[in-house]
Amino acid sequence: MTMHRLLARQIRQSTDESGQVDLTKLCELVGAAYEEGDRDRRRTDRAMKLMIEELEQTHKRAEQDLLRAREFLDSIIESIPIAVFAKDAKDSRYVLLNRAGEEYYGMPREAMLGKTPQQIFPDHIARVVNEQDRRVVDSGAPMFLEGHLLEVGVKGRDRLVNSRKLLVRDGSGAPQYLVGVIEDVTERITNEARISHLAHHDALTDLPNRSAFNAVLGERLERAQEAATSFAVLSLDLDRFKEVNDVFGHPVGDLLMRAAADRLAEEADGAFVARIGGDEFMILMPDDISRDDVLALAERLVETIGQELEVDDYLSHVGLSVGIAFYPDDGVNAATLLANADSALYRAKREGRGRVRFFESEMDQELRDRRLLQHDLRLALEQNQFLVYFQPQARVDGEVIGFEALLRWNHPTRGFVPPDQFIPLAEENGLIVQIGEWVLREACREAASWPRPLQVAVNLSPIQFQAGDLERSIHQILLETGLTPTRLEVEITEGVLIGDFTRALNLLRRLKALGIRIAMDDFGTGYSSLSYLQSFPFDKIKIDRSFISNLEATPQSAEIVRAVLSLAHALRIPVIAEGVETEAQRAFLAREACEEMQGYLVGRPAMIERYLDLVGVTVERRLYA
Ligand SMILES: Nc1nc2c(ncn2[C@@H]2O[C@@H]3COP(=O)(O)O[C@H]4[C@@H](O)[C@H](n5cnc6c(=O)[nH]c(N)nc65)O[C@@H]4COP(=O)(O)O[C@H]3[C@H]2O)c(=O)[nH]1
Questions:
Q1: Ligand 1: residue whose CA is nearest its atom 32
Q2: Where would I find the GGDEF domain in this sequence (predicted)?
Q3: Which residues contact 24 (CB under 8 A, 6 or more apart)?
Q4: 300-306, Cβ contacts within 8 angstroms, sequence gap of 24 or more
Q5: The model's pTM
Q6: Binding site membership of 581 for ligand 1 (Cβ less than 6 Å)
Q7: Does any ligand 1 atom lie closer than 6 A to the CB of residue 418?
Q8: Considering only CA atoms, which residue is closest to atom 16 of ligand 1?
Q9: Which of 239, 245, 267, 359 makes an SS bond possible with 253, Cβ 3.0 to 4.6 Å?
Q10: Mean pLDDT of the chain
């Protein structure tokens, strides 16, 4: 027989040494044990109760958390701007649709929930939707369609969307739901397209820009190398665009540029036309085009652009010069091809604008020569290679009234380089600022030393007006040399007024205020000499020598000279005629009441030593006649 260990212990504790059981003690021990047991049970019951309560609360909290999480998720799904739907995986019935979904499909969710695609969409669409659903359910693989046209719903017709569908399984792994999202990417795609367009197109004309041109040229070169084909690159430049811009203002200039670009693109017959900056364009011609065809097209472009353009009630006239280089004959890489097309363009412009020139290897030589000359020009000033020649200016009766200072460059190996050749180079690299200052100083110093107070005329380049502090340097030179400002005349061409017109005008006004005289040079050759006469009180007009040399040959020249003289007289501006070589020319000018003249008839440009008598060093006064 087995006995509970506690009872055995209680009996042992109630038994004395003789083996006698003390029943009273045993009853006490058993009673105490029962009481202890009751206390334990009560404690356990309480603990159990507390635990159950705690568990119930935890459960309730978990349920509430779950509910809140669901509500939170629901509100996110409801408010995201992406359409979200869920369907029953068995029959594609819609079980969930958010607000964005209603908008995409153009119908309220009540019209869709519980329904299959066949009950909602037209047949051909329902068929596609069902096929997609089956594919996802059968394969278990998600579906992703990018940038496609949404073909359902009201709003969907012109929207581009990214859409996804994926399968959700139940606890046992069986297909339960199909969840789909549809994101409207129309704006993003159109923005991306717009940004890419802007990056590759010129904002004013909407033609491809320089970077697009370089990319296309790179591709063309690669293709032409592989296929052994040839192609032509045209470098184009609008003639006189800057003048138009300046005379009519930038808004008209912009309209004109747009109109010219349209004409170019229209006439270019599908060739690739790009605007690569300012008034410069490039055209890439199709493969294997003949020289004759390229020439014909280029001439057509020159003619089209040369026609009058009516822009915003203004009639304006620009021209076009074109340089052409061929791959592979004139260059096998982009840099050489472009440089050679530019050389041809440079030649076209130099030969009188409105022309088309093919690249020739001698142009390459010319370009290198120009660079060499530019390099030598830098040394010329420090090595004293410049000289100032003086050419007398006289009244038409022959009385010398002053001299024009003309710069000469005595190159150590080339001899005398004509100013027409090196001054544009000095203007290109900015050296004209220092060189011009040197001429001014020499001319003023020389004139200040003459016993007779004759005037001295000095040419100023437009670059001197744009860069450097011309006013200060003239002021400084006058102080330094002691020449009276009224004896100095500066000759400017209309180029000075092109560009920053207001700045140039203010500068001229300040120079005039110092007492310096301002003459307008090359009158009649520019685009807008007449309009400039209105804007500034010039002290003298110089009629360009081209009109004087043609006086006898072309009757129009005589008419132009007469017209300029009568206009100048009306404005009370004295006129000096340039390039007077013959007595007949002088007589004509005298008859037409032209005040002054300059030319070989009076005297050639020379070192001042040749004219010492005229300036009063040896002879007080000398008359030409
Ligand atoms: N056929 C012919 N020509 C005559 C006659 N009389 C004078 N000439 C030439 O006509 C030019 C007159 O100078 P420009 O119109 O100011 O034209 C000047 C001027 O624009 C520019 N230039 C000369 N020196 C300077 C200068 O110091 N600074 C600047 N910025 N330009 C200068 O270079 C141009 C050419 O200068 P040059 O070669 O010295 O040429 C000079 C002169 O030698 C004549 O009867 N017949």
A1: 459
A2: 229-361
A3: none
A4: 300/267, 301/236, 301/264, 301/267, 301/268, 302/354, 302/355, 302/356, 304/263, 304/264, 304/267, 305/238, 305/260, 305/263, 305/264, 306/354
A5: 0.59
A6: yes
A7: yes
A8: 459
A9: 245
A10: 90
Cβ 420 under 6 angstroms from ligand 1: yes
Handedness of CA 571, 576, 581, 583 (dihedral sign): positive
Separation of CA 203 and ligand 1 centre (Å):
42
Give how far Cα 116 sits from Cα of 87, 89, 122, 588, Å: 9, 11, 12, 102
Highest mean pLDDT among 150-154, 162-166, 542-546, 588-592: 588-592
> Quick check: 260 pLDDT over 80?
yes
Coil, helix or strand at residue 161: strand
Q: What is the predicted ipTM?
A: 0.95
CA proximity to 574, closest of 602, 603, 537: 537
d(CA 382, ligand 1 centre) in Å: 23
For residue 366, report the distance from its CA to the centre of ligand 1, in Å.
Answer: 23
Q: Residue 33 and residue 14: Cα distance in Å, rounded?
A: 14
In angstroms, the Cα distances linking 511 to 474, 505, 506 are: 9, 10, 9
Report the separation in Å between the CA atom of 406 and the middle of ligand 1, taken as the mean of its atom positions.
6
Q: What is residue 155's predicted lDDT score, i.e. its pLDDT?
A: 53
Among protein residues, the one with the nearest Cα to ligand 1's atom 13 is 406
More confident residue, 496 or 449: 449
pLDDT, tens digit (0-9, with 9 covering 90-100), for 336-365:
999 999 999 989 988 888 899 999 988 878
Which residue puts its alpha carbon closest to atom 23 of ligand 1? 406
Q: How far is the CA of 511 from the centre of ligand 1 (A)?
A: 23
C-alpha 509 to ligand 1 mean position (Å): 25
Instruction: Please tell me the distance from the alpha carbon of residue 521 to that of residue 543, in angstroms, as a whole number.
Output: 7
- The answer, yes or no, to whether residue 151 has pLDDT greater than 70, is no
Residue 218 CA to ligand 1 centre (angstroms): 45
Give pLDDT, residue 621.
46
Q: Which atom of ligand 1 has the smallest separation from the CA of 427?
A: 30
